[in-house]
Amino acid sequence: MKIQENWGVLVSQTGSEVIAIAKEIGFLPSLLVTNHLYRIPKDNLEFFGKNGVTIRTILFRPTLENYLIPELLEKKLITLHGFLRILPADFFQYFKGEIYNGHPGLITYFPELKGKDPQVRAWEGKYDTVGSVVHRVTEGVDEGEVVRFSAVPNTAQTLDDMFLILRNTSLRAWKNFFEDNWKFE
Prior knowledge:
The protein has about 180 residues and is of the alpha/beta class. The protein has a single domain (about 1-180), classed as Formyl transferase, N-terminal domain (Rossmann fold, 3-Layer(aba) Sandwich), CATH 3.40.50.170. It is about 35% helix and about 25% strand. It is built from 7 helices and 7 strands, in the order βαβαβααβαβαββα. The protein has helices spanning about 15-25, 40-50, 65, 70-75, 90-95, 120-125, 160-180, and strands at about 1-10, 25-35, 55, 75-80, 100-105, 130-135, 145-155. It has a 7-stranded mixed sheet with strand order 3-2-1-4-5-6-7. Helix 1 packs across helix 7 and helix 6 (about 120-125) packs across helix 7 (about 160-180). It is globular.
């Protein structure tokens, strides 16, 4: 798999979404920054390592200084995948590239799904349609322009079903984002 030098990711979860996206588009980010290294399974860490992805760890509750990693600031694109932190407003003064977040809530139609735990709220809200978005990152939580989304009828019978449906719509939204916006070579 090819490494894309201009792409870095921030993750707080397992990194599985990054791997799934990479397998779809044929590219991996050159840098993965996490504040939860222990949450990334050994197999995923080995996958990233074998494929040449640099991994950096920052504090669980990072400050602006923790984000000022020179190799991160050099990227043209940063994507957030289950990154459970809000970027400090001052970060945007240092990073001049583009930042996008994947959000497992169809905030294009249901803005009440912005923020934490949208999967649970989508399940509890019994929406007829559910989905995920990719949006620009701004200083406000899930306030940036939605650039891609994927929506499907809600067929979830359990909360676990909802998580799976939203994972699949997220992967579809990310795949479309990369195909339409970031053609790596």
